[in-house]
Amino acid sequence: MMIVELEFDVPAAPERLAGRAAHRELLGRLREEGRLLMAGPWTDDAGALLVFDVDRAELDRIMAADPYYALPGVRMAAVREWRPVVGC
Fold first, then answer.
1. What is the CATH number for 18?
2. Domain assignment present for 43
3. Does position 88 have pLDDT exceeding 70, yes or no?
4. Which has the closest alpha carbon to 8: 52, 36, 38, 43?
5. pTM above 0.70, yes or no
6. Domains in the chain: how many in total?
7. Would you say residue 29 lies in a domain?
8. Looking at the domain assignment, is residue 87 inside a domain?
9. What is the pLDDT of residues 38-55, one digit of tens each?
10. Distance between CA atoms of 58 and 56, rounded to whole angstroms?
C-alpha cells in the first residue's frame, strides 16, 4: 500500500479548488477499481491523506494522470509505502 500526504497552500486555494471536481471524479473511479482505499482532507483543510492499494510504479502513473497534484497550492508532503497490520 502507498500513502500520499498532501499539503495545501491557502493563498492558492482558488486554483486548487478549480481542479478539485475532476480530481475527485478520478478518485471515485480509482475507488471503484479497488486501487484507492480512502482519501480526504484534514479537518483544517491544510492538506489531505490518500491511501492507495498499488505499488509505487502504479502510484506514479496515477499521479501523472491527475493534474491536481501539479496545481498551484498543492504540495506533495510525503509518499510512503505502508504495511498495515490491523484493520485492512
1. 3.30.70.1060
2. yes
3. no
4. 43
5. yes
6. 1
7. yes
8. no
9. 999 999 989 999 999 999
10. 5
Range of the domain at 53: 2-81
| Strand 74-81, strand 36-41: pairing | unpaired
Q: What is the DSSP string of 18-78?
A: HHHHHHHHHHHHHHHTTSEEEEEE-TTSSEEEEEESS-HHHHHHHHHH-GGGGSTTEEEEE
What residues are paired with 6 via a beta bridge? 48, 76
CA nearest neighbour of 46 among 8, 6, 84? 8
pLDDT digits (tens, 9 = 90+) for 7-28: 998 777 888 888 889 999 999 9
With CA atoms as reference, report the closest residue to 45 among 3, 4, 10, 5.
Answer: 10
